[in-house]
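Hi R.,

Here's the chain you asked about this morning:
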Amino acid sequence: MTRQARSQSTANRGSNPTTSQRNNSVNSPRASRRARRSAVAATGVIAALTFGTLIAVPAAANADPAATIRADQMLAPYYTQLDLTGDKQVTKDDLKVVSDHLGDTSASPDWASVAVADTDSDGVITVKDLAAVSGRMIYDDGPFTLIEASTIDMQAAMNAGVLTSVQLTQDYLDRIAADDKTTQAGGARPLNSIITVSTDALQAAAAADAERAAHGMTSMLLGIPIAVKDNYDTKDMPTTGGCACWEDNQTSTDATMVSDLRDAGAIILAKAGLDEFAYGFVSEYSAFQGVDPVTGVQNTALIASPYDTTKTAGGSSGGTGAAISANFAGLGFGTDTGGSIRVPSSYNQLVGIRPTVGLTSRDGIIPLALSQDTGGPLARSVTDAAVALDAVTGVDSADPATAAQAGKVPDSYTTYLDPTALKGARIGYVPSMIGTNATTVRLWNQTMATLEAQGATIVALTPPADFSKVLGESSGSTNEFKHNLNDYISAHLAPNVADRSVGSIVDSGNFVTSRTNVYTQRDAVTEDQYQAWAGPTGSHTLQLAAGQKLVTQMMDDDNLDTIVYPTGNPYNTLGSNLRLSPNTGMPAVTVPMGQSIAADGGSVGAGVNLEFLGRDYAEGTLIGLTYSFEQASHARTTPALYPALG
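And the predicted structure, written out as tokens:
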């Protein structure tokens, strides 16, 4: 079976949980959730093959029966116990059986014929079961293709012995070393997407390989290299926030989300660049850039889009966006206060999830404005984003906002990966949020036709008068930054870091000095001003609650599953669209809907994303809808400037 065929059979299908299964999925303590996620594949120890090594055998359906029998005699039970077709081995025919039964439950008429594939024993056949069955295949698959590889591709290759996590990690490290700081032929400037690479990544990858050898695929993230924005604390790499002032901030602990990823077996490969302290959308940082020897002014780096290196990658999670799009890591994580996951996702043709505030813990992440801060994944596909999100949910006593998620989080968001999810969906939009940009309008019209062709009903909304207040509310980044940063400094900043206040950072000169006025303005905010803004009865606090209530009511009034709008224009924002999610706290998933063409004018090939907004903790619904749209459109392209290494 070829890698291409397997990728299509796994990535292009999904599962459709019943209403009762969705409603009965509840969140439980972190430890037990991790245990359930570890049951993705059967947990039996991988037995050694007869000759003590992994032997590749053909998996083609038309193989010589005699040869098949001889091959079967060489296979240990681990590689035969999920056989569904009676030939005593797992082949593409078995994967087709599982694919055809995605969404079936223990109550389905044909359950007996597929029950063995329910590897996590949850009573439903899901994409996780499909990946687990693929992990029992032994075949000659040829070289693994890194570019655009999905988590399922990586897991299947590692399970089959075609690839190890050490090899995968080294391949990504090689790409970063070769391409991140180099101006490509036909490019204008380097990507500058990565601030630090881990010196422990290969050791962690070796541990993941040992885990797989002993117990099989214990997690969908086992051995998968991940890049995290450099405002997530990591105990093996400094956490700079993009600022030269904090190059020595080597924390002794991981951010909660990073700890979750490590617990799932992921490899924390690198710290991605960002707009310094997540201030804006340009993605300019000073960390490890040195000082100009003539002027004495702090040097900075600008992160570029891999599609057009004359353009920014967006921000503030621009480094994560550029790195994942250029295939420098398997998955990425960023943070979003006013658009910082969704802007780089749109500029770099990625799927980005801004979770409900409270779904993921912010503990150990350098804050910008905790009233709106939330961390989430950036990925090359909806499937990968769902897999990534699974690993980082959970109630965390260190972040009180996470308490609200109890009972509202499914065991796995991958159960929502249903290619037919758009059928019967009611999708609303506000006409004034479409804008007039030629590319955006053209793609919007095409997209609406696609959604309707998939069975969705599109509803034009007339928003209430106070809707303008929702979009018009300012970000908390000015009034909250100093207060929240001081809390981070007190709880997390390494004791040897000298600059321990906004004022000290300004005095040091070790920052993006063109932002001096911004730093000074934020340093001038008093505690009284902060409380009047973000305190329990602060104006911002009250407006966010009012916004959440108003937009939820809009959805209820028209029985909507989601409200959609363009995330932005090509390499630009679009009005106040980005404010809708942070000013309500409601989740949003952004997904590519296409690129600009010459007839539009502007930068040819520039991406534009469609954003889906949902009710609090309705990430599963949004993942289903965006997956269905993704499978109908396949809009993402690969940056031509960053092909496979020669």
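The chain has 22 helices and 13 strands.

Let me know if you need anything else.
M.
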